[in-house]
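QA checklist item 7 of 12: single-chain prediction sanity check.
[x] sequence parsed
[x] length recorded as 300
[x] structure emitted
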Amino acid sequence: MDTQQISAPERASSGVVHDNSRHTSRFTVVGNHLTQHRELSLTAIGLAAHIQSLPDGVGIGIKDLADRFPESEARIAAALRELEAHGYLRRTRTRLANGRIVTRTVSCNRPSDQRRTDALLGRDCPQRTVRPPAPVRPCSESEPDDAHPARSRTRTHTKPAPLLVPKPAFPAASLLRTATDLLAGLHHQDPRLLLSAQDVDALAPGVAAWLEREAGPAAVQHALTTDLPPEGMRRPAGLLAHRLTARLPSPPPFRAPADTPPRPIPLQNCEGCDRAFRAAEPGECSDCQTDNSPPTAQQL
């Protein structure tokens, strides 16, 4: 009697299959508590792994990371906040000997290792230090106020810089009035754009410059209110001033003035019959000139 052959079940074809090689150089050990974290976004997990692979002293500010990766500054800032909330990053503010306040960042490969983090920061107490609110950073022409929220934490409190906006070539009163009404109504699009009277007066010439370049009020409103930062807009007027300057449309094409139409021939009163006729100089109409002309040889 033949022995029954039992085939082993085929291995499932779905799911990941690892083809691993042992690293002997240039590698970083990352815990599964990070790579398989259930509450962190994929952006935050990847950013944490990248930061843990960097040597000490490498800058990991929002601007530095945005220059290195395709993610936007807002997305990177949100990922850093996630890592800080779950203990993978610790940021504290420190005052240097020269009085400057800087932010020190420590990357933790294990969030529970609080004692080592405190030792790196030179603290005796393992409790986390609450950071004070970041100072307001003045806006400039080339950079909006909310472009680099991480870098603004290292600056001291300063008076906001004046709003610099383009000026119209001919600041007509009607143009400035339209610009003022447009700015005063921006908060209907986003409540954060509720501007003070001082900010409206400062920004109105910039809007007038757009209107002067044949950009309609709807186009100006769209340029000022589209793709606003989801959070952290500390000085809306500074952001609007940056957009008015950086996105100023080009002047309209030159249009040659239309040819002046010829002046009509003036009316004259005939000296013979007192009828009106058109002529460059006073005199007689064509009928009177014909009647007063000498007879021809044929008529005789």
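[x] summary fact logged: The first strand starts at residue 89 and ends at 95.
[ ] second reviewer sign-off
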